[in-house]
Amino acid sequence: MALGGNPVFRSKNYREQTRAGGATGAATTTTAQPMSAQALQDLYSQPSASPQQTGRMTYADVINKTMLSLGLVLIGAAIGWQLPMLMIVGALVGLVLGLVNAFKREPSPILIMLYAGFEGLFLGGLSGVFEGMYPGIALQAVLATFSVFAVTLVLYRSGKYRATPKMTRMFMIAMIGYGLFSLLNFGLMMFGAIDGMFGLRSGWIGLAIGAFAVLLATYSLVLDFTNISEGVRRGAPVKAAWSAAFGLTVTLIWLYVEILRILAILRGDD
């Protein structure tokens, strides 16, 4: 059973794509007819089929689409860095596109790329504001984000960090609690009930919550890796690679924002 923490991978859309791939593979197996020795030799002599030819998702396909998505985030971030007033637009449009992509039955490459671009506007504006307050913080956050990603991937590949049903249930409960706290904090800040740049997420409490959120994001990465592996193993259609790339992009953006917030709290206490 595939485990999913990222809403993209838990969506009905991604599950149906994965099941459809496995079902197609099974049908092909049951209807195959015996082949002659010469036919088998000719088959083995042919070059390897590409993902487009097989119609199946591969790791290379997921990597390529993820790199494209992250590249668009960087382009949007470069624009947002120069025009920080676009940060709000990027945040609002990115949120809407994120929800649309997460629950869309079929992945839309155009909508996924638009999401990456608008989220880039938000990240660029946010990073530019913090960079003006704490020089060097943006580079620190980028390096820390990809360091966490690399370590998580290495631990996952080594088998030392795996998703389990019990841990995933605990993760979902923690995510609900974190989401409710974030909404409460945002509401209190909007109505002026609390002061400060981060509201309740200031000082040592903010650092503790930030560290907790980073742990949640790393486990979300493990769930992303698990669902991608399951999709490849079960022969998910090649279009599912876009859903996988979108899911990874969402998690990495979340991780970056949390690390940026932690660094800002630490730098603000200097």
UniProtKB/TrEMBL annotation:
The keyword Transmembrane applies. InterPro entries: BaxI_1-like. Keywords: Membrane, Transmembrane, Transmembrane helix. The keyword Transferase does not apply. This is Bax inhibitor-1/YccA family protein. Pfam families: BaxI_1 (PF12811). The chain crosses the membrane at residues 62-79, 85-103, 110-130, 136-156, 168-191, 203-223, 244-266.
